[in-house]
């Protein structure tokens, strides 16, 4: 277990990072973490955490925060109460700050440059961004964050000095140039830059760096450089031998067949581009790359290590690869090679592999006259030059595996990182490359990126604006970097004004840049132009989908192609990083790519083609949803199927898959209802609403059910379909009763009743009485409820509707139980149970077992009730009816309590609460009141 403060505040238990929620909780942990092993008094904790202005209940709040932290740490003894306060007891290395301070202290004392570099590098890798970046506004912690930033800079200076002592001056130049720009007054860093320039033969540039610093100090501070820097300038002017680079380390000679014996050693290349100092997030990907570094180099028979960093355009693949390359550069003393392969170049001209190999050979010092003309000869010579070497190779922006293979070394010791919008699966399959997929930033990582660019205070001052900026940029690093750059150049501009500009201009125009490399529209176009015509059309048509994602059949409907063709195009789009298969068979893209695809479809596809595509999609949803709904609950009256489009495939999901289909599609179906209503497609609107009713009801999504049924009712009114209006009114009345809005429920159900009476529609009238019975029951008007339920039962008997007769029998039996007529209730419900089984109504059977169990409980036989509830619970779980499960679990807890089994009762009630807290908070409060204080937590599974 480790508490991490050198970045966002969190806890690592095992290998799992656990976030800490809430500013004050983070502050409590940070204060204790910075005093790890020391007692911090309660008064001091309160003062620091609440920044000198604690609320009246601060001590109670502190105790609550400490309880939360003990749970998060998974060790109640980690935060101990020790008068006069509390102590964080996590061991000597229990915080990243403690580890960093120990390693930096050791590194500063080491006499050996290599040992010093190892300790300091390990220390600096613990920083994940600005220390305690998510605890801004707490003055003492902000002061400590500044101290830790200075500690990082102290360690960085010492590491640079050690690496200069190891002769790594060439590799350090890009990093030193960046650091001196970030710290324009730091004389030690400037001195190190001067020394690195001098040792690479750039004496004039080294002296020029001194003169630039001198002007900066004079102009801004009115001072001259210190004695040490002036002495370094003098030593350079007289070319003091003490400034010469240290002798190169002796390396094992390569095997004779690997290199020409007469060939002199070449230069050490250092081609990695300048790293981004404000890199944020990507802890998982960095750890995956770190794992490629072997503990021992050149073990017998080992292979070259290759990583493929892949993801969509602008997601930060190159930044990740370059950042990591700089972190581990010292592990590769023979140099670092880099090439941009231009796989998705705006001009659609990827770099030929032969050109890339020639560049590497030149960097390795191979004379031009020795470089072959053919690709096979070039690759062979490159492998020979790299044999026995420890070189890091970054192949950026690769088009495909064939472009990469000629650049791969053959002998162990080298490590290759490839970035591409394509996952390069053949490279993974054949060469054994390790995939490192890169997705959009999390909200926290996106905020950290803005903090690193704009500073914690500016970001913390406008949290709502930051949230809007992150949303407008779709958590895409390139887009966030462009916007942050705009904000950084306008420090006087409030972030809210920038967020308003993004919202007003919207989409890609909001983050367009003058440089094509930072213009999202241009960046996306490089991938789009490389697509096949079929895949390009699929990408455009996908933007017409109203939901958050699309299944393969839905994509096929939009494109008007068979599912197999749609699957092939989606695979191509996935390889290009333009869509993401977020779950098996379901595809999406981020908001900026959607905006780009929307622009394309408006430009390339005529309005008639777009309209036809949307119509096909809605027809697909209607037909498939109706088929799935009938499988989900065969008891529902089947809605006559609409005529299907000849291009629409309508899968008939088996009953056990219908639940999963709705779970995958329900958000898309909700959006489809809105879209069909907007387009005036009334038939589609009410059919979709009717098909979704069962799933939404069973999953407690009652507000969504209200929305779709109201849309259906409006559509049916426009169509003049009076029986349909009655059915929709019944559904609305039922769901309003569910959520406790009894006036609206009564209005809709009486409207339906009157409408069915006018139409002389006996089935509709029976349903209306049935639902009115449940409404009166919900209002505890049990006599009125029984009257309506009895009328419904009589009508269903007259109609010969056995299924609904069984349900009405159960309804009357249940209400009799509420009236205390338990024997009569039991007889009614047992009759209902027999008829449920005869007609195969599994859902009706589940409800009836619940009613039978209730009657047994009230008749003084709770053990028999428990058995009945078990039958009901199994059925509801099988069907996926979560609301039904919650109700039965509550009753099951009551029965266990009646037997004296308090633990089993609490277990059932807590499982009920797990569902009700999400579905029905009012009912959850009723169940929660049954739990005694300190009741045991839930077991893994409630039997049933």
From TrEMBL:
Keyword DNA-binding: yes
Signal peptide: none
Residue ranges for the DNA-binding region feature of this UniProt entry: 1-90
Coiled-coil annotated spans: none
A Pfam family annotated for this UniProt entry: TPR_12
Domain OmpR/PhoB-type per the UniProt entry, residue ranges: 1-90
Region (Disordered): 240-270
Annotated keywords: DNA-binding, Transcription, Transcription regulation
PANTHER family: TRANSCRIPTIONAL REGULATOR REDD, TRANSCRIPTIONAL REGULATOR REDD-RELATED
Family: Belongs to the AfsR/DnrI/RedD regulatory family.
Annotated protein name in UniProt: BTAD domain-containing putative transcriptional regulator
Organism: Dactylosporangium darangshiense
